[in-house]
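>> received
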Amino acid sequence: MSTAEQSQENNVQPSDQDDEKILDAASIDNNANLDVILNIPVEVSLELGRTKMDLRDLLQLGQGSVVELERMIDEPLDVLVNGTLVAHGEVVVVDNKFGIRLTDIVSPEKRVQSFSS
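>> returned
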């Protein structure tokens, strides 16, 4: 017999406390599902710039060669997550390692549009 049937039979209404228990159980399930998603590894990369060159020029590159990129020095870098642009930023140094300070976050609408193109 369900709780609702028992309540009707005993002419007792479920309390707010019972509702809270149900909501707590639902939120625990949602948190568990969210934890699974939040533990998925993603690849975060920074794009310094791009260029196009002929295969002939590429094959002539050697140690010490310089490849000029299209991006200007004062332009922010692209922050990509799994190949999708999510932000822009500037290079910083943290404990002798490169890092990035985010200066602009790409809107969710633009991120979704990039999936369809």
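>> The domain at 44-116 is CATH 2.30.330.10 (Surface presentation of antigens (SPOA)).
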